[in-house]
């Protein structure tokens, strides 16, 4: 994409290491760093290589293994320039799983798969670049800090979602029409929900098959319909009602809990157009129940809690934002 072309000119020190991919192929990992930061470059590249290894576990071999993974220090924050990411986060690390992590390094690197290898044909599908890349960030948190770290990352995404306008306002849209924060957060949360709907084994297999399929990569540009058909064809049900709700509308599932008699509650989910597996906390136990607009009656002394682990976005979450 032409937005991804850049020239960076400066006086740099070149720091280089060697990376061995998941298929045992080797490539250079290079950092063009300012002289005053040269001593920080080696550890920074070690961090980068750990991130590449994690991404390879989920998305297959680094997409440009025959060339390099590169970084260049820049006065602006960052950008996913193919094979030489711009880095301007000034080595400001946070802690993850007891070790340092650079959020910018992680995110821009993820675009080598999501944005540079898999590339949308229409700006309307820019969520494929930013939403799935943001989800890749969460998967790295999962690798380093386990499921707890993953869920904390997704909670941060959930709290930042506005849901004021659709991710895809129309087809053949301009950048001004589609670019907003929700292509990151809400896009990644849709992937989070699909993980639960499909189950880990199937979801991670289908995700990797998408990003490693020649039909969807490099010169073969993709659209939402390619993503939806690929995931639906490999799931146990048609996922298009849920995906279309998340992308083309601001509608969200509505959870309904009605007490029908003593220790009996009717549970249902509306506004989705398909059945959803939903965790329900009954007492101190969590069960997964398939819910739709047709109520399911459960026995519980206390009022059940729907989706205690926040696998979905719910209308109630945003009604509360509006009320406050």
TrEMBL record:
Gene3D superfamilies, A to Z: Neutral Protease Domain 2 (1.10.390.10)
All copies of domain Peptidase M1 membrane alanine aminopeptidase, residue ranges: 45-243
InterPro entries, alphabetized: Peptidase_M1_aminopeptidases (IPR050344), Peptidase_M1_dom (IPR014782), Peptidase_M4/M1_CTD_sf (IPR027268)
One GO CC term on file: extracellular space
A Pfam family of this chain: Peptidase_M1
GO MF, any single term: metalloaminopeptidase activity
GO annotation terms (biological process): peptide catabolic process
Signal peptide per UniProt: none
Full protein name: Peptidase M1 membrane alanine aminopeptidase domain-containing protein
